[in-house]
Amino acid sequence: MWHKALWMRNYKKGGIVLALLFIAMVVLVPAPIMGVRQQIEWMLEWNSTWKSISHQFAYTFFVGIPALLVIVLGAVLIGGERKNQGLDFLMGMTFKRRDIFLSKWWFGFLHIVLFTLVATVILFINYRFTNVRDYTAFMPFAQYLWVLFLVLTSSFTLSLLVGTFTGNTQSQVLLTCVLAVLPIAIYFLIWGSPLVGLMITGPHAREYRLGLFLLDISLVNFFNVRQSFTLAENPVFSTTIIAGELLSGFPSIPFISAIQLIYIGISLPLGISLFNRSANENNGKILLYKKLEPYYLWVAVVLSAMFGGTLAGSVLLGTWSTYFIGFFITGIFVYWILSRILNGRFKNGRDRA
Amino acid sequence: MIEVSNLRKSIDGKDILLDIHFQIPKGSIVGLLGRNGAGKTTLLRTLVGILKPTAGTITLEGVDIIQQPEAKEKVVYVPDQHTFLSGYKVKELVAFYASIYPEFDKEKCLGLLELYKLPSTSVRSYSKGMKALLAIILAFATGAEYIILDEPTSGLDPIVKRQVLKFILNEVAEHGTTVLISTHHLDEVEKIADTVIFLNGGTIESITSLEATKEQFTKVQVAFKEGKGFEHLPNVKILSQVGKVSTILVDGDVGATLKRLEAAGPLFMEELPMSLEDIFITTLGGDDYVA
Asked: What is the pTM (predicted TM-score) of this model?
């Protein structure tokens, strides 16, 4: 996995995405501290008597964009290599499949570590040498960087896992994104459908708790954490206020860490195992394993049909009939499209015995 | 020696290769022939571990290359498409190969690139033929003992094609490199191979030395006044027929068959020089051979 040639190949293939990731990490990740500075300056200028105020920022762009880039990096390293026969080339050489996969994982992981460290240094300099440090602790930023690091690692690992059963870049990115939103998407589709709404009677506490849990375990949720913490003015008014105390009702850092580690802990060994069996004869197809196609087809059709039903229900004042019309029209349409796409290959795919 | 035993490969439930057995001795040039869809590319890709066999083993000097891919240090596979090379500059490729194959001869590689006038630019600017030539040069510069070539001369002009074939022959003669070559260009196989493997419907139809193959068959042009004097002979296959003149291929028992044809009183009968293409068409052509 540490063979020079494998790393040369990874750099050759993933270099551009890596450069974009570096720029995104350097520019975007330290950005939230600018918001804090602005808020402090505003408060000092307009309201000098404030004791404390909570500051909130969402991770959406700061974590979401690098996360999308690491998903693309994973897709370039596996899906892109399937498309241009790079994997064929490496597998025809002296390398073990396990080592090829692990070289890609370490390649992505070490760059995530490196870029996170660079972003941390930039963010810390902005903290240490500005007035931000007078009003808050560094802890909220450290937690933000920790979540960022975990989310990027789990997103990248999940993308590599998906690359072991998809045949090209596009399907790898698409299916990784689907998996990232799947738990919460299922929740919204069920919760949002008038059919289920009518079936639920009495208090909805159990369904609500289930919904929160599904939201909490969805990878996409971590792209969009909102972090609130106190800004304390020192020392006159803030003797009982802890600067940097988290006020957010979002999942705790240990919970986030546990979920991310579970994602990584499942995706990595499963990815190694599946990559070892990689059916390279189907490189270029949407899925590498023909046996998976019916499951993929029907899951996609049912979810799309539910989405279609929900959409029709919400647009046309949610009745049973409109829900079912949307459900069946979308389901049939998606089935028709997908069953044709699944039989085809993207450009450059091999189709020979 | 590469040894393939009981090799079977199924793709999506369809058997592509069935119970393949053969050995490739060191220092030989083996031609792999078969019609489109016979499983040639699948066989080559399975031989080097790109595809996992459904059953069977592939060993190199007794080492299973699927279990121990490190043994493939002695084997280089050159595919028929070279999209992989396109993102590189030539010197990057040389560095890449040198990092994998400890015996890689950089000077030999650069010398050959110069000899064949391949510029040290980005491979993206290369024509299809130049890419094919580059891939072959890189493969032979690795110092590997076994080179597996899939349609190596596809896209090359006749002059470069001749140079490549000559180059392969020289390498085999000088270094004892073993070459397995899959191609549709039967004239190439005829020029350089000493053994021919005929693959048909996923199974090995025959493995013979080229000389023995040619001795087994004789091509004859014959004309009879009425009917065909060879209809009752089971070892005679028609290559073509124009009017009363038939061109036939005699498969085995050549002397006795020719005597029986003469005894049938032909208007004329003449032995013709035979090509591998004649054998290919009659052996693998099924009912579709050109008559």
From this structure: 0.83
